[in-house]
Amino acid sequence: MRHCSHRYLYLLLLALFVSFAANCNGGKTSSFVRKGKKSIDMPLDSDVFRVPPGYNAPQQVHITQGDLRGTAIIISWVTQDERGSSKVLYGTSEDSLEFSSKGRVTRYTFYNYTSGFIHHCTLQKLKHNTKYYYEVGIDHSPRRFWFITPPEVGPDVPYTFGIIGDLGQTYDSNSTLTHYQMNPMKGQTVLFVGDLSYADDHLNHDNVRWDTWGRFVERSTAYQPWIWTAGNHEIDFAPELGETEPFKPYRHRYHVPYKASGSTSPFWYSIKRASAHIIVLASYSAYGKYTPQYEWLEAELPKVNRSETPWLIVLLHSPWYNSNNYHYMEGESMRVMFESWFVKYKVDVVFAGHVHAYERSERVSNIAYNIVNGECMPTPDPSAPVYITIGDGGNIEGLATNMTEPQPKYSAYREASFGHAIFEIKNRTHAYYSWRRNDDGYAVEADSMWFYNRFWYAVDESN
Ligand SMILES: [Fe+2]
After folding, report:
1. Number of structural domains, the chain?
2. Ligand 1: distance of its center to the CA of 332 in Å?
3. CA of 445 to the centre of ligand 1 (A)
4. Annotated catalytic sites, by residue?
5. 86: which of 62, 183, 268, 398 is 20 to 30 A away, CA to CA?
6. Which residue range forms the structural domain that includes residue 328?
7. Is residue 343 part of a domain?
8. What is the CA(104)–ligand 1 centre distance, in A?
9. pLDDT tens digits, residue range 165-221?
10. Is residue 123 in a domain?
């Protein structure tokens, strides 16, 4: 009898253990609790929105890569008083801007708003790894800036990317941008995962907030490329205001080199930069079978040459793996369409935004399901990307603090804080990734991981 009860107790304990193991949480949900602060946009008279002095002075200056391999750059700015010159003077010596290039001007109206003159000028045939000075507004109130071109594309070229998403223009946004600029790891190019100004959260999509945003981020965007991804706050679809052309303000203001990668739309495209091949996808453009985006991506992935660009990075807005209740499963239909390709082509990392919190996944895939087999759970997969949600730039909508419980096993780390990340490529095998929250000092890392390249060194990073 005693023997029997011992056995019963043993079986009970075993059952309890198995049950716990099956249901236990995944990774870490950070215990860090940010003090409640209201997310409000900085007032229009804030110093960060100041209009540069001088008649028709160029404002909202921003640059992005202008071709496939980093020897061209698109320079954009706005003049408000009159059209003015679209010419850019540039050169490698501060004393003599020996080259010039002429750009083009566009304008748009949105309900009761009329934009300034939006200039876009592409500088081509630039030398790699070179500091260029450039001047815009040359006819009235010239302003001078500089940028450094990337090294020639190659497999072991080190390069440091910053990652920012869902930035907006609140005091938290300002803190995020300052933290990025003060980060001792010195990002050289920003991978921006969508949702820029949040102008559409204001009455009648007040497009003045597109202008203030452009002036706010100029302190970074005029000096280093920001690689743009379109988010839902770029759609600006407002039939109630008579505005039925989606993405109208974004498309006029932010040009990208989509034609260089054979794309037919600015919302999906790719670039090569240093040792990275970066694919930008559009969560808010059609991606079903036979759509232009689907066909472009199907042709694009086999073209990625990991001997030239070992690091395959994807940017998109709506995350596929998100354990926050905010925007839960919104990225599911795109995941169903494309996830098997990401595994087949061994994407290293996918950066997404949209959810105003931070989350990093394990390497998992969920591609075995075929309607009848019931295999519909994420499983560890060494060929799968790490999914990082970094929509924590600090916009007017505030933090997404309500997470699904328990934390799923695929979720390695999650936290509802504002911040930014750095992806620092060392060589073809190793990259160091770190995320910093705004509530800490500039040098403090809240989450980090060594990435091992999926093509050249596909070993388990947790070992
Ligand atoms: Fe979003």
Report:
1. 1
2. 15
3. 25
4. 327
5. 268
6. 152-194+267-462
7. yes
8. 30
9. 999 999 999 999 999 999 999 999 999 999 999 999 999 999 999 999 999 999 999
10. no
